[in-house]
Design goal:
133 residues; mainly beta; Porin; 10 strands; globular
C-alpha cells in the first residue's frame, strides 16, 4: 500500500527528558494498493523526538478511510539515523472494527513501512507499507 500524506509545518514542543519533540500535523492525502484505496483523514500527527543530532524517533497516529467508508486507525512507529540515509523504517499497526473478511488482513498481518523524508520540505511524505508473507 502506498500512502501520499499531506503535512503541515512542524510545531516545536521543545526539549524534554527523552529529546527534542516536534509534532508534525497530518492534514490529508490518499492511499492506494492492490485491495485498498481511499483518503487519509486530517487530524493525525507524527510525534517526532530528536534523541541525538542525527537520530530521531518517529511515532505517527492517524486514520485512513477506505472508499467503502471503513475507517482504519494507523499507529506507525520507527527510527531514522540521518547519518546513514533519509529513509525511515517503521512498524505500522492497524485497528479496524469491520467484520468484513477483506479487512482481516489488518488484524492478522505483519507489516513494515518505509518512509521517504526527502519530500517533507514540500509538505508531503510518501509511505510504502509492505505485508510480510
Amino acid at each position: 500500500m502506498r500512502l501520499h500524506v499531506n503535512i503541515e509545518k512542524e510545531l516545536e514542543v521543545g526539549e524534554h527528558p527523552e529529546g527534542f519533540l516536534r509534532v508534525i500535523p497530518i492534514t490529508g492525502g490518499t492511499f492506494t494498493g492492490k485491495m485498498f484505496n481511499g483518503k487519509i483523514l486530517p487530524g493525525g500527527a507524527d510525534w517526532n523526538t530528536q534523541i541525538k543530532p542525527d537520530y530521531t524517533h518517529v511515532h505517527a497516529k492517524y486514520c485512513i478511510k477506505e472508499n467503502d467508508g471503513t475507517i482504519i486507525s494507523v499507529d506507525n512507529e520507527g527510527y531514522i539515523n540521518f547519518t546513514e540515509e533519509r529513509r525511515i523504517r517503521t512498524i505500522p499497526r492497524f485497528t479496524v472494527s469491520s467484520c468484513d473478511a477483506k479487512y482481516q488482513v489488518f488484524l492478522t498481518g505483519i507489516f513494515v513501512g518505509e518512509l521517504d523524508a526527502s519530500m517533507s520540505e514540500q509538505g508531503k511524505i510518501e509511505i510504502i507499507i509492505y505485508k510480510l508473507e
